Hints:
- By secondary structure, the chain is an all-alpha fold.
- It folds into two domains: 1-46, no CATH class; 47-161.
- The chain has helices at residues 7-16, 21-45, 49-162.
- α1 (7-16) crosses α2.
- The radius of gyration is 62 Å and the shape is rod-shaped.
Amino acid sequence: RKVFFDTHALVCLLEENGFTTQQSEVIVSALVKIMNTNLDMIYKDMVTKVQQEIALQQVMSHIGGVKKDMIILEKSEFSTLRSENEKIKLELQQIKKQVMDEITKVRADNKLNLNLEKSRVKELHAQQDRALTQTDRKIDTEVADLKTMLETHKLDNIKYLAG
């Protein structure tokens, strides 16, 4: 161990301040032991440059492994998402087809109903036209009958008046 201060100078300083040589040497020896113990404790917590490089390499390799794992996970997640997306697309196409089929059915039903209603309306108009035509004929017949009757009464009145 290297001591980073002059122990002899410290002994001399202690002697100048009233300590004996033996006391000064004991104090300096105790200080050196304390410093060595403290340095030992500090060295236990410290790492050497080589150890630091090894630890750094281990951490970097661990980070590289984690990166690889993340890339693999991303790819697997991406492929999972892609397959789920394809499933959803297929379901959407099926639903779209079902909706289009339902729309076609509704349109066909509506056209059929509309045509039925048109036929009913035409039939109703035809019935009304026939009824109107029959009513017109009856009215014409009644008018002709009344005219005939009127002419007959006229002739009868002329006969009575002439007779």
